Amino acid sequence: MSGKQKRADEVFCRSCGEPIKKRAEICPNCGVRNNKAGSSGQRRTSRTPSTPHNPAQYETTVSDTWWYGVAGGTALWALAFIFAGVVGDSLGPLAGFVLLGAWIGLPLAAYFDIQYVRANAEWNPTTVLWMILLAIWLVNILAGVVYLYRRHEVLGVP
Ligand SMILES: [Zn+2]
Description:
Helix content is 47%, strand content 4%. By secondary structure, the chain is mainly alpha-helical. Strand 1 (10-12) and strand 2 form a beta hairpin. The structure holds zinc ion (ZN).
């Protein structure tokens, strides 16, 4: 704020320091939201940069049953992991087909379930990250368990 003059109805932008109207919520210069009530620029406290997730911002018509898909897919992979250890890698074409379904179905179920979680819980999972984790062999078993555990923590339902 070096040498910038402001008028009586103006304050300095909390971000760029340009004088802006006191009533302005968003600085026309830099686009950063300013505190409507705060007239001094001193109010900029050290809040964490990531704004808290607000479930009310999200609307979804997604059913709450997609987690069954996540649980089922994870269980399938865990079974495959156990069987692969017992039978070697000769799982057979049927198991291969089932696992192909799980490989697509698990991330897909997560894709829908995350929309539900986001709109109903204090957790905003990164869709792409989880879909990738749930598509990688062995990682997906762990990721599925972690996801369901976290989901249970924030939603408390299943
Ligand atoms: Zn500004």
